[in-house]
Amino acid sequence: MKTKYPIGILGATGMVGQRFIQLLENHPWFEVAWLAASDRSSGKPYGEAARWRLDTPLPERIARIVIAPADPEGAPRIIFAALDAAIARELEPRFAAAGCAVVSNSSAYRMAANVPLVIPEINADHLHLIEEQPSRRDSGGYMVTNPNCSTIGLVMALKPIEERFGIEQIFVTTMQAVSGAGYPGVPSMDILGNVVPYIGSEEEKMEAETLKLLGRLEGHAVTPLAARISAHCNRVAVEDGHTESVSIKLGNKLGRPATREEILGAWAEFRPLAGQGLPTAPDQPVEWAPQSDRPQPRLDRNRGNGMAVTVGRLRPCGVLDWKFTVLSHNTIRGAAGAAILNAELLASLGKLEPGRVPSGCGDRSSSVGWQPTAASA
Ligand SMILES: NC(=O)c1ccc[n+]([C@@H]2O[C@H](COP(=O)([O-])OP(=O)(O)OC[C@H]3O[C@@H](n4cnc5c(N)ncnc54)[C@H](OP(=O)(O)O)[C@@H]3O)[C@@H](O)[C@H]2O)c1
């Protein structure tokens, strides 16, 4: 690739926005060209407006970028969005209508029938739903979403099992990191030395999103997986990394019960993006931890640069068939990294080419070397 796609970040000052900036520094295909946040931040240099919370230095070039108003006028065509759902509900369609490819982290449109909810390793074919969006026809713009941070680890672990054996029932209990609530998030007085057994709407999101992701694209819509699912979601005093205890009842695709070795084999051989050249796709998306006390957030969350999920403790379940533990990094694989991988997939499919955009999104692209065909190379 000769030049990079210029990209913008909506909600650039937040927890997920900061991860976007960190993960996109030196990205081979994308370059940060535009940052936007609320009225509190717009007009200020990023280094002044954002409270940088990550353990790598804020890049100097980024610190100097003046934060733009959250308006499509003058924004690049590709927008990574990291907004609260209520704000995303209003802003994301405006950017799509103006011709932007909006790659969103928010829950606002994940369950909309014509909006793809995508994990590239799981259901890349669901991206066809962008063709069902009115803005795609009118301006070329569209919305694509990635799942909730607790859903993604679960689904990555379930997909290889579902493919080979089928799944009929899923029971999951989460132990979710505080960074999942954004910054400043849960007050320290509420979470230190404590567990909070409630995260607003999280259980409903996990249950619905899991079945959509594992569902089948049929014609113009996704038919969710016909499985029963129950989620218990808890906030725990961990900085980064969501841990989940999972029990499953398998289907009967084999015509006999699956063995432990067969389930381990399904995880080990699950490499659906191998050879596709997406820069941030992990070589081994589902890593097995053989130790009896793993995975653990502090030790395992950064596997595959934070893009792999780790499974461990596979054993028979006394109620359903099998139980195991899964861990994923909530702001990398569960948020910014997921959106970046979605954008890489869109680029590789030629879906980031400029649309029919007379004004608004995409204006900036000419000034930073837009080359529509470069990414599919
Ligand atoms: N944290 C995670 O692990 C995680 C994982 C998956 C998905 N998500 C989702 O990602 C989204 C962002 O989460 P977060 O944790 O990054 O939240 P956050 O830390 O609270 O950041 C919110 C961002 O939105 C901006 N914003 C607020 N009001 C705005 C407005 N009216 N117009 C434009 N921008 C506005 C804020 O800008 P100011 O600084 O100017 O206020 C900030 O940049 C949420 O939908 C969340 O559910 C988060």
Description:
Helix content is 28%, strand content 21%. By secondary structure, the protein is α/β, with parallel strands linked by helices. The protein folds into 2 domains: 5-147 and 333-376, Rossmann fold; 149-330, Dihydrodipicolinate Reductase, domain 2. Strands 7-10-6-11-14-13-12 form a 7-stranded mixed β-sheet. A 5-stranded parallel β-sheet has the order 2-1-3-4-5, with helices on both faces. Strand 3, helix 4 and strand 4 form a beta-alpha-beta unit. It binds NADP nicotinamide-adenine-dinucleotide phosphate. The site of NADP nicotinamide-adenine-dinucleotide phosphate has 28 residues, from helix 1, helix 4 and helix 12.
Key words describing this protein structure:
single chain; 377 residues; alpha/beta; Rossmann fold; Dihydrodipicolinate Reductase, domain 2; 2 domains; seven-stranded mixed sheet; binds NADP nicotinamide-adenine-dinucleotide phosphate
Q: What percent of the residues sit in helical stretches (DSSP H or I)?
A: 25-40%
The biggest beta sheet is recorded as: 7 strands, mixed
Spans with pLDDT under 50 lasting ≥5 residues? 364-377
Radius of gyration: 20 Å
Name of the CATH homologous superfamily of the largest domain: NAD(P)-binding Rossmann-like Domain
- In spatial order, strands of the major sheet run 7-10-6-11-14-13-12
Termini separation: 7 Å
> What small molecules does the structure contain?
NADP nicotinamide-adenine-dinucleotide phosphate
Mean pLDDT: 93
CATH second-level architecture of the largest domain: 3-Layer(aba) Sandwich
Number of domains: 2
Written as H for each helix and E for each strand, in order along the chain, the element string is EHEHHEHEHHEHEHEHEEEEHEHEEH
Q: Tell me, what is the CATH class of the largest domain?
A: Alpha Beta
Structural class: alpha/beta
Strand % is 15-25%
Overall spatial form: globular
